[in-house]
Amino acid sequence: MTLSRVWRRYRVRLVVRLAVLAAAVGGAAALVVRGGAASAGGAAALAAVAVWAGWGAVRAAERPARDVRRFLEGVRYDDVSGRFSAAGGDPLLDALAAAFEEVGGAFRRVRAEREEQAGYLEAVVRHVGVALVAFRAGGEVTIFNLAARRTLGVARPRSLEVLARRAPEAARALADVAPGERSLVRLGGGEGRPQELVAYATRFTVGGEAHTLVSLQDIREELEARELEAWQELSRVLTHEIANSVAPIASLAGTARSLLDRPAPPEGAAPPVLPGAGRGGRLDDVREALGTIERRSRGLVSFVDAYRTLARLPTPRPRVISAAELLGDVATLARASAPGVTVTVDVDPERLEIVADADLVEQALVNLALNAVEAIGARDGEPSGAAGGAVALRAYAGPGGRAVVEVADDGPGLLPEVAERAFVPFFSTKPGGSGIGLALAQRIARLHGGTLAVSSEPDVETTFTLRL
What we know:
By secondary structure, the chain is α+β, with helices and mostly antiparallel strands. It is 54% helix and 18% strand.
């Protein structure tokens, strides 16, 4: 073992310094006792050596304490990135440095795992499909994920006060939800249609400060999907049962009427016998009754055909469509059906394109345009709308690049209770209306993964908004 390696040992250096300190102190004391000028000079020199050795011993003794203090300060401030170098030969200090490195590495691993988990939870919260909003007792918003932005239709606010300026209904709903309870919240929605949300709030404490977390789940789409399934099931039942019953009735009624319309049989021949006709009954009354049965039966057949049309729409075959050409064709049909109505087309940008089934979307827009024309006619008392009025067909790029098509008219509008039922099959406020057109248009929108909504201000404007 070389002298330099021996000197690097902690104990050796400490013992040597203490020995030098003791020798210097002893020698200085002896010289002072002896007296004389020379002795005084030597005593001063030995005293200086004693101070140097004592200071070195103190520094050597404090080194482990300094390392421990530096390590503990790093733990206190969550910074254990500092490295502790080994003494390079001294077993005691090498073991201490290795312990520091091991504990520091464990802290760094825990911190890395904690940051990874925090990032993972943040990503989950950001992209989860349920709207999540968290805020402090003072109203500062701490969590506002992407689903919340889509549901409430606003960007992340700094506080509930800022949210109240952008979306007053949403801010009131968040503030009114009681922790631990579920409640039904109805909002106007960011897509121009009412939203029915289930809100659940919970309260927790972080760092001694109370936080409230509110989840908002839109159940309207699920309700609409269930409603659609129910209508389809009912449609299959009606199509099977009513068609099987009505078709023979219509055939029998037509046959009976044709027999009654035949010339009278020759004299002496027996007249034809009709089921249900009593002896001596009036043939005219029978003819009228059978005619009524026939008309009613054909009406029921038409009803079933309309329901079958709603339930058996073909699967869309999307392709790129020019919005200007599509709305131009619809406008041409609308003008032909009502020459007195002004029909305008506005497409922004002019080269806007729609990815959809051209035939199905055109059918939906034609239904909406004719409905607008008939609404204007109802206002003016003329079915054709000859007294005037305006219908606007508009198309533009909505949020996310999805195409939005609007059909607006200046007719009498819809009352709120009527607007809520506008898309219910066979519901109509028009005399003789089938109630199929709007339901069919909404069905086409859903087949394309889009929505159809209505907003109406009576006697000002009614707008049907189709998002594809």
